Structure formats: C-alpha cells, structure tokens
Amino acid sequence: MDRLQAMKVFDRVVDEGGFAAAARALDMSPPVVTRMVAELEQHLGTRLLQRTTRKVALTDAGEVYLQRVRSILNEIDDAEAEAVASTRDLRGTIRIVAPPVLTTNFLAPLTALWHARYPKLMLDISVDALALRRIDEFDVTLMVAGEDFDANIVARALLHGQAIVVASPEYLARKGMPLQPADLAQHEYLRDTGAPARSEMGGGRKLRLHPAVGDGDWQEVDAPAVLQSDSNGVLLRAAIDGAGVAVTARLLVEEQLASGELVHVLPDWIVSRYTVYAALPSGRMLPARTKVFLDFMSEQGPQAIADQRYQPG
Q1: Do 110 and 308 form a contact (C-beta atoms < 8 A)?
Q2: Dist CA 191 CA 176 (whole Å)
Q3: Of 126, 132, 189, whose CA–CA distance to 155 is shortest?
Q4: How far from chain centre, in Å, is Cα 83?
Q5: Residue 211 — φ and ψ, nearest 5°?
C-alpha cells in the first residue's frame, strides 16, 4: 500500500463527501478508491469512515486522523513548493478559512486582482463563522479582533478599521439626527447578534461609544432594539430601507456612505476599533506562497478593497 497516496485519497473522500465523487475528482475508479481507504483502515486497525447508502461520515478516530493527515499533506506541498518555485513562478493552493463577513467583504473583492497577479496560485476559500477553531487545518485563518486581542496564536495584522453607527437619510428625517450618544436611546436599534459574539464590532444589548479622536470617556446607551439578526447583510439592508440605526464596520458601507444611501451618525464617535488578522498554524514553516498571500493582503487598505469591490463592470 502506498500510504501517502492512501492519505490523499482519504482526504479527498472527506472533501468530496463520498467515494464516487472522490474517484471522479482523482480520475480513479470507485473500487480503487474504496479499496485504498479500506487498506488504510486495515493498516491503522481502526474505522475512519462510517458508510451509508447516501454519504460517508468521519468516526471519532477519523476526525483526529484527518487533522494529522492534512497537516502532513500540507507539509509535503510546502516542501515541494519550496523546492521548485521561484518568486516569479509560484504555484499551488493556499487554503483559507474565514467567517462570512470577511470572505464576502474582504477576500472576495480582491480575488480577481490576486488571480491576475498570481495565476498559478489558487485560493481555496472555506466559510466558517467559527473559523478561529480551525487554525491548524488551514494555511491562513482570517479573523476580526478588538484592541485588547492577546491570544496565544501566531497572527499577522492585515487591516485596521472602525465600527460606526449608520442610518438612512429617510430614517433620520423622520426620527431626527442624534447630536450626542445619549440621543440614541430615543432611536430604533438594529442589533447584531452574530456568533461568535461581535464585541469587537460593537454588538450587544447596549451601545458603547468612544470619542473618535483622543482618549475621552466612553458613553453607554441602552437603545431599544426593533430588529435583531446574526446577518450583517440583513441589518444593513434594513438600515438602508429606513428601519433604524445599525452598527457596522465602515469598510462595509463605503459605497453607501459615498452615494448617500447611508449617513454616518455621530461622526465624532465610534463604537470600536478592530483589526483583521491572519492567524497561522503553529509549528509550521511559512511557505513562500503563504508569505506572498499575506504580503498581498497587507498591501490592500480599505480604499483599495472598496475600489475593487465597486469597480464598474
């Protein structure tokens, strides 16, 4: 048995969700794929997959083994990339995981530019609201953290931003423009209940605002919620339609602020400052392709991302 090939086949069966799909992806026959996984299980003396007529599922042993297998396969890919690639001819796959708000608003706007610059480097992007739990499974894990972030992980800061309060002109014409944080108590709050808790972005039952400049005292306001959701998109749509005030990262609403669909409420105040980090698996050499990706993302400030997102055509 070729153990390395068997590991690759096992990994692909999990990724594709079945033996037949993995066989198609690997250009192999289904019986061969089934036999290789069975031989791997026999070699290990344990069942890795539970088979049913519809799908396969990992056993507890399979879950543990898969993490180690992916780490081994990543190390092999890294070694091969280091051996054959030059900075002008990087190739391979970069596996990335990020929560939905970052994949949609931070990664997606830059993928075309990335591909034009590095056509032989493929981005394999997974979406997971709990991405931080999967750092060792991927080359890069994107995450958002507040100013007090101090976790025991290897992480590189990519982007700094602010969370602000916004509302539509129609809503403000109806309810009045808040002139100080305490005025928000008389307004209708569109509350973000996203998981994990959005303390970094100002989510929660009460609005806590800080002066945008300097170190002045914060103010906490108990604003009545009229809508709550764990979807940032739902809340922004509701804000644009005049349902109330919402808290959001300024990066996400640059187009709406420029067009006048939304208004920055209390511009001398912010809800929070945050940083987008790239977390890296511990104990692994940083591959050249991952370093190139991190450098590329670091170059892209909020305006560059906004420009890519809203390009005509």
Answers
A1: yes
A2: 20
A3: 132
A4: 30
A5: -60, 140
For residue range 255-310, list pLDDT tens digits in order: 899 999 999 999 999 998 888 899 998 766 788 888 899 999 988 765 555 554 54
- Which residues of the chain have a pLDDT value below 70? 53, 81-89, 148-151, 195-205, 283-284, 301-313
Element (H, E) at 141: strand 140-146
Q: Which residue has the tokens 């953290």?
A: 145
User: For residue 180, which of 158, 143, 142, 209 has the smallest C-alpha distance?
Assistant: 209
Question: Which parts of 17-59 fold into alpha helices (H)?
Answer: 19-26, 30-44
Helical packing angle, 3-16 and 60-84, nearest 10°: 110
What's the pLDDT tens digit per position in 13-31?
998 888 988 899 998 998 9
Write 113-118 long-range contacts (CB < 8 A, 24+).
Answer: 113/308, 114/293, 114/296, 117/296, 118/90, 118/292, 118/296
pLDDT at 312: 39
